[in-house]
Amino acid sequence: MNSLLILTTGGTIDKIYFDDKSDYQVGEPQIGRILKELGVVIPFTVVSVMRKDSLHIDAADRAALKAAIEARDENHVLITHGTDTMVETAKVLAEIPGKTMVLTGALNPASFRGSDAEFNIGTAVGAVQCLPPGVYIAMNGRIWDPAKVKKNVSANRFEAAD
């Protein structure tokens, strides 16, 4: 792997909360800072494609993300994405041949103490280097096939789909 392309779409991983009433905005991508703080030595480029809660990502946004991946030369792509519609986006990206793409995110903002962001990012960085071309989801310490996973909202985790 020569270089890792990181595309950010927003989601909880990048959220900044302003009060106890859940007033938030999607802030600057956190992944570049996290990778630098953790001493990751592989070359990477971070490109912000959008800054949205995944509940607001629509078909046009998914098409724009797909086009952004297709327009780049890198074959290893890590995508940070909100968890609520991550599976839906991954299924759209599965149409892209010849690239290894791993989507990850966080169930708590990266800026929160005890966030799962660093762990999920670390899992995704390892996965994108080792997996064959295709699209995958890295959450909760596992690598998932998007066709076989779902988010369990009440348990706040990803699990095998029925």
Give a verbal description of the structure.
The radius of gyration is 14 Å and the shape is globular. Helix content is 25%, strand content 30%. It starts with a strand and ends with a strand. The chain has a single domain, classed as Rossmann fold (3-Layer(aba) Sandwich). The model has no long low-confidence stretch (mean pLDDT 90). By secondary structure, the chain is an alpha/beta fold. 36% of the residues are buried.
Question: What are its keywords?
Answer:
two-stranded antiparallel ribbon, asparaginase activity, 162 residues, alpha/beta
Q: Radius of gyration in whole Å, from Cα?
A: 14 Å
Distance between the termini: 35 Å
- In the CATH hierarchy, what is the class? Alpha Beta
What is the percentage of strand-forming residues?
Answer: 25-35%
What would you give as the CATH superfamily?
Answer: L-asparaginase, N-terminal domain
Main β sheet profile: 6 strands, mixed
Going by helix content, strand content and strand pairing, the class is: alpha/beta
What shape does the CA trace take?
globular
Quickly count the domains: 1
Number of helices: 4
Number of strands: 10
Brief sketch in words of this structure:
This protein is an alpha/beta fold. It has one domain: L-asparaginase, N-terminal domain (Rossmann fold), CATH 3.40.50.1170. The chain is built from four helices and ten strands.
